[in-house]
C-alpha cells in the first residue's frame, strides 16, 4: 500500500489541549473545553484528518476514579464533538503509573507517554501515515511520545502544564493553544 492510501491524523493530548487541566478531570461538570477546540478540530476534520485522542489517565491507576468513569466521560466528550459535526475516530488511554498506583495498574507500561504505545496503536488501527500527521500536547512527554512514533509535526501548547526550554526543543511549533493550530493547514 503506497503512502497516498494512508490516512493523515491530528493526534491530540486531552488534558491541557482539549480541556482545561484542572487535575485528574473525570466528571463532565469539571470538563471545560478549551476555546477554539471545536472550530480547529472541524477545520482539520474537514481537511481530511482523522482526529485521535491519546491521554494518560493515571487518575485511574491512582484510584481517583474508575475506568467506567473515564469511559462515561469519554462518551459524553465524543457526543459534544459530534454535536459540532466532528468525529473523534478513537480515544486511547493509559491507566497505569510506574510508582503510585493500585496493584493492577502499577507497571512500567508501553502506553504511558512519553512511551509511544498509544500513538503506535492508533497508527496501526487507523492506517495512519505518521509523516502526514500532527501531534498536539501540553507536556514534553507528549512531544517525546510523538517523536518516538515518527509523527512528523509536533506542536506544544501553553494551554496546559508549564514547560521548560528543554520541552520547547522537542516541538516544531509552540502555540498559545489549539485555537492557533489552523495556521498549519
Ligand atoms: O494530558 P493528558 O495525557 O491527556 O492527561 C493528563 C492527566 O491524566 C493528568 O496527568 C497528571 O500527571 P501524572 O499522570 O500524575 O504524571 C497531572 O499532570 C494532572 O494534572 C493531569 O490531569
Ligand atoms: Mg496534557
Ligand atoms: Zn499504560
From TrEMBL:
Pfam families in UniProt: Hydrolase_like
Positions contributing to Zn(2+) binding: 94, 96, 109, 111
Gene3D superfamilies (alphabetical): HAD superfamily/HAD-like
Binding site for substrate: 13-15, 21-24, 55-58, 112-113, 139
Listed SUPFAM superfamilies: HAD-like
Gene name tied to this protein: gmhB
Signal peptide start and end residues: none
Keyword field: Carbohydrate metabolism, Cytoplasm, Hydrolase, Magnesium, Metal-binding, Zinc
Protein family according to the UniProt entry: Belongs to the gmhB family.
Site entry (Stabilizes the phosphoryl group), positions: 55, 113
Keyword Protein transport: no
Location relative to the cell: Cytoplasm
Binding site for Mg(2+): 13, 15, 138-139
GO molecular function per UniProt: metal ion binding; phosphatase activity
Annotated positions for site Contributes to substrate recognition: 112
Presence of the UniProt keyword Cytoplasm in the record: yes
Protein name listed in UniProt: D,D-heptose 1,7-bisphosphate phosphatase
Gene Ontology terms: cellular component: cytoplasm
GO biological process entries: carbohydrate metabolic process
Amino acid at each position: 500500500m503506497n503512502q497516498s492510501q494512508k490516512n493523515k491524523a491530528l493526534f491530540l493530548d486531552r488534558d491541557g489541549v482539549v480541556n482545561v487541566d484542572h487535575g485528574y478531570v473525570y466528571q463532565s461538570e469539571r470538563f471545560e473545553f478549551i476555546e477554539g477546540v471545536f472550530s480547529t478540530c472541524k477545520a482539520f476534520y474537514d481537511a481530511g484528518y482523522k482526529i485521535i485522542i491519546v491521554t494518560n489517565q493515571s487518575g485511574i491507576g491512582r484510584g481517583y476514579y474508575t475506568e467506567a468513569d473515564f469511559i462515561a466521560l469519554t462518551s459524553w466528550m465524543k457526543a459534544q464533538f459530534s454535536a459540532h459535526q466532528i468525529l473523534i475516530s478513537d480515544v486511547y488511554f493509559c491507566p497505569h503509573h510506574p510508582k503510585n498506583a493500585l496493584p493492577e495498574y502499577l507497571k512500567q507500561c508501553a502506553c504511558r507517554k512519553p512511551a509511544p504505545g498509544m500513538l503506535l496503536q492508533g497508527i496501526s488501527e487507523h492506517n495512519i501515515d505518521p509523516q502526514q500527521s500532527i501531534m498536539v500536547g501540553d507536556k514534553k512527554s507528549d512531544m517525546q511520545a510523538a517523536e518516538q512514533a515518527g509523527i512528523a509535526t509536533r506542536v506544544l501548547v501553553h494551554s496546559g502544564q508549564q514547560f521548560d526550554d528543554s520541552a520547547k526543543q522537542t516541538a516544531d511549533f509552540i502555540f498559545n493553544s489549539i485555537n492557533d493550530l489552523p495556521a498549519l493547514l
